[in-house]
Amino acid sequence: MNLTLKIWRQDDGASEGAMHTYQVSDISPDMSFLEMLDTLNEQLNEKGEEPVAFDSDCREGICGMCGMMINGQAHGPEVTTTCQLHMRAFSDGDTITVEPWRADAFPVIKDLVVDRGAFDRIIQSGGFISANTGSAPEANSVPAPRDKAMRAFNAATCISCGACVAACPNGSASLFLGAKITHLGELPQGQPERDSRVVSMVGQHDHEGFGGCTNIGECTAACPKEIPLDVISQLNKDLRTAMKHGH
Fold first, then answer.
1. C-alpha torsion angle, residues 14, 76, 123, 208 (rounded to 10)
2. In sequence order, what are the residues at sequence separation of 6 or more whose Cβ sits closer than 8 angstroms to the Cβ of residue 38?
3. 50-56: which pairs have CB atoms within 8 A and are 24 or more residues apart?
4. In the prediction, which pLDDT does 59 show?
């Protein structure tokens, strides 16, 4: 495959960025998108040019590090992570536009790399679980209804990649936040701090500059782990309950 790449290049957060055009050839359809970018960077290195900076780690669709906008879609045309997107999703001769996540709360560090530290600070604001467990307990020592346990497990599959924020026209992180709230709130161990947790995390979300949710649904459509939209309903329900309790 021969492709034309239009890639956002930006030295750092204080610099102005611009799109740069590159040509790559002999790309195998079985390559992942990141392997294709590796090939481009090898060519740039051979020419003595600065390689394109992008995030990656596991390259197995687990860690969520590899987020970027591909032809205006978070992670590209398939519902998966960028590292698991293969070049067979494109056609020979295609022009592909690659940009960093589009969100004020995710400032650009360099090229396609953004600072997603806002997610870490939201999680940190939720505090800890105060249930005294002593030494490591047996996995099933605290009974939980199966439906709640499965809902918590499904919400916990969120990998904090940020696709929901990048896809949302409002730049809201409500799907991410709802997944974290639902994950902890459905289990018995998460009950002591349930009210204070949701208030603190929502406050941090707003402080970081994320937008409000208007239930458009682009977030769940872009989510590589298919987190359902109902976690946002759970988030709102828990927040209303906490406010009634005086938090």
1. 40
2. none
3. 52/7, 52/9, 52/111, 52/112, 53/109, 53/110, 53/111, 53/112, 53/113, 54/111, 54/112, 54/113, 55/112, 55/113, 55/114, 56/83
4. 95
CB atoms within 10 A of CB 93: 9
Q: Residue 141's pLDDT band (boundaries 50, 70, 90)?
A: confident
> What is the radius of gyration, based on Cα positions, of the chain?
20
Q: For 71, how many CA atoms within 13 A lie in the half-sphere containing its CB?
A: 12
Chain segment 92-137, per-residue pLDDT in tens:
999 999 999 989 999 999 999 999 999 999 999 998 766 666 676 6
- Exposure letters 152-188 (e unless 16+ CB within 10 A, then b): bebbbebbbbbbbbbbbebbbbbbbbbbbbbbbbbbe
Q: CA triplet 14, 20, 23: central angle to 5 degrees? A: 150
Place of tokens 């960077």: 41
**Encoded tokens for 8:** 């956002």
pTM metric for this prediction? 0.91
Question: 90 is written with which tokens?
Answer: 């494109």
**Amino acid identity of 36?**
M
- Four-CA torsion 184, 185, 187, 189, nearest 10 degrees: 70
Residue whose structure tokens are 């977030």 = 219
